[in-house]
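Sharing a chain and its predicted structure for anyone who wants a worked example. Both blocks are below, sequence first, tokens second.
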Amino acid sequence: MSVPRIKICGITNPTDAMAAIEAGADWLGLIFVPQTPRFVPVESATEIMRQLRALYPETTVVGVFQNQSLSDIERLIQVLKLNRVQLHGHESPDFCAQISVPVIKTLLLHPELPELDISELRRQSATFLEVPQVQALLLDLPKGSAIPSVLNVTHSDAHSEKLRSFLSDFPCLLAGGLTPDNIQPALQIFQPAGVDVASGVEQAPGKKDVDKIKRFCHIVQNFHPQPNHGENASCNP
């Protein structure tokens, strides 16, 4: 297994975009979900893309959408030349199949389930990955969850092993309350193919903290996964 991929999400300005790439991020996420703290208007996104493509033309930029129309998603793919989209809502496999660029499909880890129903996650994951456009998954906590981070979801070694096994078998980025302070144990416990962070590297919603980004990326880049773990689950930009 290679070093986990890094996605820095919730980019709202060119300065933060450049800082993330220079720190070692593989993917940048621009959120196009209205009424969310890190929503980026198309005008701002256009300027981010203009400056980014001038200096780092090969950067993978992911547009994040939630329960939006296919026409709205495709319009921004074309206008901004997005490399991928992340679908964070109730989109079906059939909907994903209509997207013109590769898709990251978000699945939610519900911490209220007493036995951490990984079998349902496996079923959902297999169904979505049958669609050629769906090339990666993102495992996250539900919005507004009282659980501080994904580290607090597993209540026993058995639960941790179930989640770790799932992440080993599927091309999946792990999200949910990750920060520079907890990313090392998260990597050691779960061995994900990739990680996704937004609020954990911010000064305030929508404004990144460069030092936190650097610390986060440095820890991930220097992590050494266990041999033969996740060989079928790599996430490639």
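Comments welcome. The two ends are 15 Å apart (CA to CA).
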